[in-house]
Structures are given as structure tokens and as C-alpha cells.
Amino acid sequence: MDKNSFFLNILSLLRTFFEQILEIATLLFQWYDKNKRDLPWRITKDPYFIWLSEILLQQTRVAQGLPYYLKFVEHFPTVNDLATAREEDILNLWQGLGYYSRARNLHYTAQVIAFQHKGKFPSNYDDIRALKGIGDYTAAAIASFAFGLPHAVIDGNVNRVISRLFGIEKPINKPAGQAEIRIALEQIFDSSRPALWNQSLMEFGALQCTPKNPNCVNCPLNTKCFAWSFKKVNELPRKEGKTKVTNVFHSYIILKLGSKTFIQKREAGIWKNLYQFPLIDRQMTINEVLSHAIETYGLQGIVNFNSVNEIEHVLSHQKIFAKFYTISLISGSEILKNDIFEIELDDLGKVFPTSVLTLKYLTEQKKHDK
């Protein structure tokens, strides 16, 4: 083969390659235009609202996260409003979403933007990525959606689409798998329209290329999909190893005095700065609970042991077996402990933010009392 023929073949291959890339983008954009959901953070380029939506939607389905987004926007319409808010007000709005460190990081970063950056959100990837609570994915999302910068997002939906499209067999939760995802994604990423590309690909994964039972027959990309062609849709993406779930035992002591109760502020752990009934992190018998209450809180004239409620609560890495022991006190009982204080029971979960586990108990108790 002479040199001219060789270069012509190379040019032909390159032309075919770029035509396929262009075709994937065209098909993806057409699908997105017909199927995209009407979501409020998609009609703005304000980095504050985009950042807020991305943090709220981490580990959260859109249907669950949307009402929270609307509440946050209503209560904190600017980053300065969020920065100057009380942490308790933020945690109250966050109740039910879980992963409360996101809320605490949200507040901290809002203060950095408001006070150190004078209310102006950083406009380049590295500065965005440096903010607390913002990882690679969130930085790429803000950079592309708000500022049109050519950064590809990689979330769970993108991982799934790319692994199936390119037949990536390596576990996507390992560095080698993520490296292949990035290489494959760079081949088809449309850097001239990064916001549209990222939104289209993520939405495609959320609605079309779903984890289970994807609609492959009517998929616009099925003729280009490795997994569809080789019947590996249900095998990809691959993950290696599972999160070890440990059993945890909680014993909550509910000290009731009429309509009032006593709570404490949690100082550490996943529910840091939330409020709870006095807690012992182990299983206890009824006699142990009574002895603990008398010895620890200096109770005088202890009254009736009313009930024990058992609730199971599953987190990503823990299964909590909780028991709520209710002790009714007589009028004039004294609580001799500084880290618990008296409130109206109805204020827990309203004025004083608490965990989903405690909210479960309160909800069940209200149903029982009716």
C-alpha cells in the first residue's frame, strides 16, 4: 500500500469515527428534547441554585428532592440568606433527606462564598472543586451548567450508560473502571455544548438506560450499544464488593412530664447537631433503663414505666435496632443533668431538628395516640 492510500484509509477511519460521535450526540439531544423532565434548576444559570440542587439530589431521587429544593429556595433565595441562617433552621428543612453532613457542609460553604468571596460564586472548575462538600461530579456540573465550561459529569447514571455503550467490564466502583469510563466518555463528549450534553446523558440514564428493565428495544442508541448487541445489559455496569452493613443498637429514654419531654443535642456521628431523646448506644433491659434513669438523671419520685417501642432503621452502612423506653414523671421531678433540657414534645422535629429514626417513632406514636 502506498503512502497516499494509507493516509486516505486513516482519514476514512477518522471520518467514520467522528461521524459516529456526532450521530450519538444528535440522537441523544433529540431524545432529551422529547423526554426531559421540567425541573426548576434547568431553567437557570445561577450557580447558587444549581449548586443547591446538586447537593440536595446527592443520594436522592428527583421526586424526593424536588420539594426540598423548592423549600430551600423559598426560605433562602440567595447564598447570603443561606449563609446567615441558623444551622438549626437548615437542619429542620433538611429533615428526612439523610446524610446530614451535606446540610452542614452546605451551610459552611455558603458562608465561605458570602463572606470570603463577597457573595460571588467561583467561576472556574478548580475554585469550585476546592469548596467544602463539592466533589468532582458536583464541580463539573456547576462549571458546565452555570458557566458553560467543558467539563463532563460522571454520576451513577453516566457510569451506567457509558459502561453499557462501550462494554466496560471493569468494576465502575474501582479506579481501573473509572479510568475506562473517563477515556470512553472523552471520546464522545461534546465540549462545544457541555451543559446540554451533560444534562442529556444524565437524563438518558435516569429515564431510558435504567438500572433494571431498561427499554432497550426503543432506545435510540441500541445499534451502537455493546451491551445490547452482546446481551449483557443486565450484567453491566459491574461493581465489586458490597458495603458492609453493621448492626447497631440504640436505647432511647423518653422522660415525659405532661406534654413536655427532655432532649439532648448530638455532638458527633451522622446525626451531629440534631436533637434526640437521651441515648445509650447499646441494648438494655427495662430494669437497666430504670436504674440508668435514676442514677444518671438523679430522678426523684420516678413514676410509671409506660411502654417500649421498637423500630428498625436501615442506613447505607448500618442497620439500627432502636428501642424507645417511655418513663412518666410526677410533677416536681427534677432532672440533674446539664446536657439534657426540657421542651414541649411537639416541638421535636419542628423547632428542634431530629433524625429520620426519631421522626418514625414520633409518627407511629401519634397514630397510636389517636
Give me the secondary-structure topology:
Elements: H1 3-35, H2 47-56, H3 62-75, H4 79-83, H5 87-94, H6 101-116, H7 125-129, H8 136-147, H9 156-166, H10 175-188, H11 194-207, H12 226-229, E1 246-256, E2 260-265, E3 275-276, E4 279-280, H13 286-297, E5 302-314, E6 318-329, E7 340-344, H14 356-369
Parallel strand pairs: 1-6
Antiparallel strand pairs: 1-4, 2-3, 2-7, 5-6
Helix pairs in contact: 1-11, 2-3, 2-8, 8-11, 9-10, 9-11
Structure, described:
By secondary structure, this protein is an alpha+beta fold. The protein folds into two domains: 23-229, Hypothetical protein, domain 2 (Endonuclease III, domain 1, Orthogonal Bundle); 246-369, Alpha-Beta Complex (Nucleoside Triphosphate Pyrophosphohydrolase), CATH 3.90.79.10. It has helices spanning 3-35, 47-56, 62-75, 79-83, 87-94, 101-116, 125-129, 136-147, 156-166, 175-188, 194-207, 226-229, 286-297, 356-369, and strands at 246-256, 260-265, 275-276, 279-280, 302-314, 318-329, 340-344. Helix 2 (47-56) packs across helix 3 (62-75), helix 8 (136-147) packs across helix 11 and helix 9 (156-166) crosses helix 11. The termini are far apart. Mean pLDDT is 89; it is low at 5-18.
